[in-house]
Amino acid sequence: MKDVPPHLELLFTPEQIRQKVEELGRQITQDYQDKNLLVVGILRGATVFLSDLIRNFDLPDMELDYMAVSSYGPGTVSSGQPKIKKDMSLNPEGRHVLIVEDIVDTGYSFKTLIDILQARSLASLKTCALLSKPARREVEVPIDYLGFTIENLYVVGYGLDSEQKGRGYPFIAVQK
Ligand code: IMP
Ligand code: MG
Q1: What per-residue confidence (pLDDT) applies to 74?
Q2: φ and ψ at residue 57, rounded to 5 degrees
Q3: 43-76, pLDDT tens digit by residue?
Q4: Are 68 and 86 in contact (CB under 8 A)?
Q5: Secondary structure letter of residue 104 according to DSSP
Q6: Ligand 1 pocket test, candidate residues 160, 161, 169, most atoms within 8 A of CB
Q7: Which of 88, 80, 144 is nearest to 109 (CA)?
Q8: CB of 71 closer than 6 A to ligand 1?
Q9: Which of 52, 61, 105, 161 is catalytic?
Q10: 136 preceded by cis ω (within 30°)?
């Protein structure tokens, strides 16, 4: 494993993450056995998690798309006004859609995505997030598949950034 730099404190090791992602992959595979799954990854934080997650699926007909919402400015405080910055390319009408996000914090990003997708005549909509910070929640959002619940901490690594840095760490760590 790459060393954890001194300004960070290790929270989840690559091995802990791997086991959790495998578990989620198994569960989702079971639930979507007879369904034509359309996974929608949320740029950019979810990309690392997503690429590991889909390789743990045994769903040969799964399709993949992306969306991007912005709720954060250059700092680490949510503005509470998420906007769609990039929409998906595939038509989700009549599809079984699973949104994959890195972390649910206030819930505003997820809420925005859920509201937008629910207006698109999907066959079903479920949500998956690697991390959740329930203490920070301002709007209630359903998380059907969740990796880890964490305290009110700012974390980086495994796709998660601090001002765009730190996404490439194979672990998840807390900013000291
Ligand atoms: P929400 O709209 O407040 O739920 O914010 C969710 C988004 O904020 C996530 O998709 C992340 O991009 C970002 N975010 C929230 N908490 C963290 C964190 O601890 N580390 C890195 N990004 C975070
Ligand atoms: Mg994000």
Answers
A1: 47
A2: -85, 150
A3: 999 999 999 999 999 999 999 999 999 865 444 5
A4: yes
A5: E
A6: 160
A7: 80
A8: yes
A9: 105
A10: no
pLDDT (0 to 100) of residue 83 = 84
Give the pLDDT confidence score for residue 1 in this predicted structure: 72
pLDDT tens digit sequence for 97-146:
999 999 999 999 999 999 999 999 999 999 999 999 999 999 999 999 99
Is 97 touching ligand 1 by the criterion CB < 6 Å? Answer: no
Provide the mean pLDDT of the chain: 94
What is the fold, at CATH topology level, of the domain defined by 35-153? Rossmann fold (3.40.50)
What is the 2 CA–ligand 1 centroid distance (Å)? 24
Domain ranges in the chain are: 35-153
The Cα 19–Cα 147 span in angstroms is: 10
